[in-house]
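Field reference: sequence -> structure
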Amino acid sequence: MMLEGNIYKDYHSFCQQLIHLLCTNLQKLPGDFFMPIYVWKGKNSFGEKRKGEIEAVDEAGVRTQLRRLRIENPTIKPKPKDLLENIKLFQPKVTGKDIVIFTRQLSTMIDAGLPLVQSLQILGKQQSNPTFKAVLTTIQGDVETGTTLADSMRKHSKIFDNLYANMIEAGELGGILDTILSRLATFKEKAMALQKRIKGAMTYPSICLGISLIILAVILIFVIPVFEKMFKDFGSALPVPTQMVINLSNFAQANIIYIILALVALFWIIKRIYRTEKGQLKIDNMILWAPVVGPLVRKVAVAKFTRTLSTLLQSGVPILDALQVVARTAGNKVIERSVIRVAESIAEGRAIAEPLEESGVFPNMVIQMINVGESVGALDVMLEKIADFYDEEVDQAVDNLTSMIEPFMMVFLGGMIGGLVVAMYLPIFKIASVVG
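Structure field:
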């Protein structure tokens, strides 16, 4: 066992030295790797027109290369930038994956002994996302002028949220920035995996619902009128289901524009209501107590709350500050208010479990485990165990929801389309029986 431990230490030390050597050499050669591009035009020694692009440190370097190619009287210009480069609407967004990769790489570089400014410079130059590259360049400049990494990241709150900035600040104050960055990357990866599972569960029913609405609209607007014209030629009274479908078709044809406008207006009204404090609280509360979706949303909220609070406490963030960050990143107004009450009660000297129980949102098992963790002084460890347990619960709930939604959507689609088809064929069956 001692031999294996020594081998592991030697291997870890070798990896750190190798990363330090590679990054240092990359920093020494910025011009060789990140040179600007110039566009040139000219004539060769035979008088033939030539043009092309050359990478060089400056225009003098381009002229030196063109002299070797025997290009006479060249015109040289920097390669024009993309016309959409300065329009934010067309700029790529910084994804969660970009942030995770950046966090992992920065943690590795700092652990290898590279200075923070040098690490930011290297990561900024190798960044392929132009939006993120500009942000990292700005952060590097701020850090060079004496601003802390946390404060410089707070200026870009759309990319680095309060949770990220607070953990970075705790890492800088405690001198464990590399460890904090590693924890941040792990936390972000688990949060992304959880979000991906939820989106995956909602994708299938959303697509099915959209397709069913399109099919219904096509049948009502284009197919039913053909049958209606045919039935008028028969001259007999139509069955009640058929007449109801025809009336629905006539209503859809006459009011299709108003129906679309009403749906858009309804969506806009709900969005406006959700932006208000009371509206968001009511809608979030309805979602939490919804029959099918509610239990899943509740489990996701508990997993996110415990994981975030555990990560912050393990990183050395004070519990009151940690609760404020958790409240702002809860994503649900009911959970946010509950967490704020917890912070207020702790400031008054109460335990964390009491206000959580009063909120009525968190399950009794979670409250009891938090109470035990707080009693033995291992709240962060207990919160992490709860988060791991509820991650598995969310996986199981997503699988159950998916398996329940699939047959429901099949019955819904089959019943809707089948009902329309039967209603349209009832008069034909009636005429066939009369003729028979």
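Note: The chain is about 75% helix and 5% strand.
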